[in-house]
Amino acid sequence: MKLNPVDILPFIGVLGIGFFLIIETRIPQRMWHMSRWKHCFVNLSLSFCNLIIVDTFFVTLLQKSVVFDHLKIINIFELLGLNAFLRIALCIILFDMMMYFWHRLNHKVPLLWRFHRVHHTDMDLDVTSASRFHFGETTMAAVLTYTLMLSLGASLFEVRIFKLIFVLMTEFQHSNIAMSKSLEKYIWLIFVPPAMHRVHHSDIKKQTDSNYGAIFSVWDRMFKTLCRVEDEDKIIFGLKEYRDPKELTVFKLLALPFRKEKK
Ligand SMILES: [Zn+2]
């Protein structure tokens, strides 16, 4: 059986979970409130739903569709005549910028927030939090990703390279790793370190509505959404209106977008 590199890339993302899980267990930034097993179970169950509904069903159906290859909308990459390296570099930059604006929209548009708040109800942050997304949100993100892919004329391999870096960075910034402040300061110059993303998970609205970046920190700096907190240990994760663990089971989280919003 011939192995296609496109199919191997997502497995590296799974290995990333194991890698960060080991580090955060050895050097945790803070202690978990709830049982780690329970926390892990809820987040990975949501991830499993995404794997089945979005990655296996929706994306495979989309990619296997006969019209997929004929849907190149503008094909900017071909018009610019870019080489392989520049195509991948541009892919990473443009898709990350798209994800920045998509994330901002998720906080600003009430309908999108209904889905995205599932991610923000997490009261502990660790590498499994990077998987805590409602399948409604990931389906919409997949549609957006493939629309940009077809507009650029990017290949599936190029998009998967971006996705891999995106997933590994998302795992890194959610991980509960105690890092040296000086190292984090240097990472912050270009990339999004855990300290920057922890502010985004604060239960204070002004802080939640900041630090939207996933790979590069430049977008938050450029579009004035960067927020720094001096003492990050004082940040309380989660949403003030959703603090009862009984309301945050897998099934209740799947139903959350369709339930009346708590104020
Ligand atoms: Zn968010």
How would you summarize the topology of this molecule?
Blueprint: H1 5-26, H2 36-64, H3 76-80, H4 84-108, H5 110-120, H6 135-152, H7 156-174, H8 181-190, H9 194-200, H10 205-208, H11 218-222, H12 250-255
Helix pairs in contact: 1-7, 2-6, 4-5, 4-7
Instruction: Give the rounded overall mean pLDDT.
Output: 89
Q: What sort of overall outline do the alpha carbons produce when their principal axes are compared?
A: globular
- Number of individual domains: 1
> Low-confidence runs (pLDDT<50, min 5 residues)?
none
Q: Biggest sheet, in brief?
A: none
Record field, number of beta strands:
0
Question: What integer value in Å does the Rg equal?
Answer: 18 Å
Query: What string, H for helix and E for strand, traces the elements in order?
Result: HHHHHHHHHHHH
Please give the alpha-carbon distance between the first and last residues.
Answer: 54 Å
Bound ligands: zinc ion
Continuous helix count: 12
Strand content: under 5%
Tell me roughly what share of residues is in helical segments: 55-70%
